[in-house]
Design brief:
Radius of gyration: 15 Å
Shape: globular
Strand order of the largest sheet: 3-4-5
Structural class: alpha/beta
Order of helices and strands: HEHEHEHEEH
């Protein structure tokens, strides 16, 4: 596992600008019977470790292990946390006293943009090629970016 080039530097820029860093991630592999919750947590912890090695600390992180069509009964069905629902954002904001109206949701799918918009955040859609199938052009993000570095540069240049 490795971080994409430029990710740590972009996240450091956000921290230096005074933003809290919160990770919210749909991880349905356990619901689909392809991984255990422990394996998902281990991958997530490795990402946090790799970020820390680059001088980046997340203020909060949330994982949604559910999927509406999961095969593991306790993880299948609808939930309030799976994006596009705003549950993980609302929970993290409440736990960390974050103002969602002054926050940005950066993501590479329509679900990310919808979750951010529903939670009251401004949004950036990162047009990462590997997730193009999760973008149908039905959302209206505040900004569009080619990668995280571009997203952060635009966000930091935007008014307000």
């Amino acid at each position: 596992m490795r971080l994409l080039p430029g990710v740590a530097a972009a996240l450091r820029q956000l921290t230096q600008a005074g933003y809290a860093l919160v990770c919210v991630s749909n991880q349905p592999a356990a619901a689909k019977g392809k991984a255990t919750i422990g394996q998902l947590r281990a991958v997530h912890e490795r990402v946090i470790e790799l970020l820390a090695l680059e001088g980046v600390r997340l203020d909060a992180s949330r994982l949604c292990p559910h999927h509406p069509e999961g095969v593991v009964v306790e993880l299948s069905g609808r939930c309030a946390c799976r994006k596009p629902a705003p549950g993980m954002l609302l929970e993290a904001a409440d736990a960390n006293a974050l103002d969602l109206g002054a926050s940005w949701m950066l993501g590479d799918t329509d679900a990310d943009v919808r979750a951010g918009s529903t939670a009251g955040c401004r949004t950036v859609l990162i047009e990462y090629p590997g997730s193009a199938h999760k973008r149908l052009g039905v959302t209206n993000p505040d900004l569009r970016a080619v990668d995280l570095a571009d997203a952060v540069a635009q966000l930091l240049d935007s008014p307000g």
